[in-house]
Amino acid sequence: MLRTPSGGAGHGTAATDSGLMSIGTVLNALRDEFPEVTISKIRFLESEGLIEPQRTPSGYRKFSPADVERLGHVLRMQRDHYLPLKVIREHLDAMERGEAPPLPVVGRQRDGEAALEVLEGPTVARIGRAELLAAADVDEQVLAEWESYGLLTALPDGSFDAEAVTVAALVLELGRFGIEPRHLRSMKAAADREAGLVDQVVAPLKLHRNPQTRAHAEARTKELAALTVKLHGALVRTALGVRLP
């Protein structure tokens, strides 16, 4: 469930008694369920027509509780159902019209377009190159530099895994501290080794004939990935001798 903060004044609090909220308040409301959401992500979803917050005379965004709820639906459908933004927008618009369409899933490509069908297992969420540039707010030269160091790798069709948005945001944030993309090659190599270890464990399950066993492989991969990320974080904190909030 999303929590909607209220009360108080100033940045990060509800804007007025009408229940309208600043983008900072919305971010705080969403982060319990979506810890990786950023202000840039919210702005990007607005630019793609997923939400339409009100604007003050000075141009500040003000979000209603319905906007926050819709944002939660969008982020949940991206995370859990791997749907492109166009499909999510059409689905939510249909729901707002009182319709109850079945939740689509991205399936095979047909005539250059995504065919929507119900699949047994999850598919890979993707983001186009232009979408990634807009979400990260960088130009082609910067993205090409990240690619040259292996931090981001385009898929065969030129798109990127949706996780590329998170990678881009973190690379930019680290850049604020003087850590350049070339410095991050060792982190990418370490991540590849960790992924290889997880894949080695689940590979026999992925190759099994039984669909349920293959589905179990997907769940096991997510579980091992989460444990690997936690261990990596704990080892870094231990090496630095720091405790993070």
Quick summary:
By secondary structure, this protein is mostly helical. Helix content is 52%, strand content 7%.
Q: How are the strands of the largest sheet arranged?
A: 1-2
Biggest pleated-sheet summary:
2 strands, antiparallel
CATH topology type of the largest domain: Multidrug-efflux Transporter Regulator, Chain: A, Domain 2
**CATH architecture identity of the largest domain:** Orthogonal Bundle
Low-pLDDT windows of residues: 1-17, 105-124
Measure the end-to-end span. Answer: 23 Å
Run of helices and strands: HHEEHHEEEHHEHHH
* Distinct helical segment count: 9
Percent range for β-strand residues: 5-15%
What key phrases describe this protein's structure?
mainly alpha; 9 helices; 245 residues; two-stranded antiparallel ribbon; single chain; Multidrug-efflux Transporter Regulator, Chain: A, Domain 2
Can you offer a commentary on this structure?
With 245 residues, the protein is mostly helical. It has three domains: 23-116, Multidrug-efflux Transporter Regulator, Chain: A, Domain 2, CATH 1.10.1660; 124-179, no CATH class; 184-245. The chain has nine helices and six strands; from the N terminus they run ααββααβββααβααα. It has helices at residues 23-31, 39-47, 65-81, 85-96, 129-136, 140-148, 164-175, 185-206, 211-240; strands at 54-55, 61-62, 106-110, 113-116, 126-127, 160-161. A two-stranded antiparallel sheet has the order 1-2. Strands 3-4 form a two-stranded antiparallel ribbon. Strand 1 and strand 2 (61-62) form a beta hairpin. Helix 3 (65-81) crosses helix 4 and helix 8 (185-206) packs antiparallel against helix 9. The longest helix is centred in the C-terminal third of the chain and has 30 residues, at 211-240. The chain is globular and about 50 Å long.
